[in-house]
């Protein structure tokens, strides 16, 4: 059976290519693999506010859902990312009441927003993580941030070159995007590499 790996939320940033969208970076607990996913503004706000300890005057939708579960005696025990297709990630949330465990399909962005509130594990099948992840060496992750040129022009350069690039060039573009902390672009290049490998 496919092994499950635990993830944690590392960062949430504005999307540089998609207006109104955000890039959430998930990291392997006790590992170096990282997984960027694109999420909407509501889910980005809900997750970021909670992680920063900022309380809103009125409860957000995910706060309401979490409170409702508590009142009903239901616990959110884990989230599982069980599928990835065409850049979209699919998740289950697992709820427990007494001895019963219920599995519900959910958008990954919603599932993670609930998971951080419930302080429950965010899991992913290792085969999916291994296929979709960005591998960032420890020395690169710990390196102090370097001054880089205009990120938008660099992104255009990466995207332009990657369209007709060889596999080696794509790998180099992926490495550069990771160094620039442009995880959204890195995810796009990763998808191109996966598509090339699939077609070979």
UniProtKB/TrEMBL annotation:
Ranges of residues in domain BFN: 4-136
InterPro entries assigned to the protein according to its UniProt record, in alphabetical order: BFN_sf, Bi_nuclease_dom, UVR_dom, UVR_dom_sf
Keywords: DNA damage, SOS response
One Pfam family of this chain: BFN_dom
Compositional bias annotation for Basic and acidic residues: 141-152
Domain UVR: 164-199
GO BP field: SOS response
Coiled coil (UniProt feature): none
Molecular function per GO: nuclease activity
SUPFAM superfamilies (alphabetical): C-terminal UvrC-binding domain of UvrB, Hypothetical protein TM0160
Chain spans, region Disordered: 141-171
PANTHER family xrefs: VON HIPPEL-LINDAU DISEASE TUMOR SUPPRESSOR (PTHR15160:SF1), VON HIPPEL-LINDAU PROTEIN (PTHR15160)
Name of the protein: BFN domain-containing protein
Organism in which the protein naturally occurs: Bacteroides caccae CL03T12C61
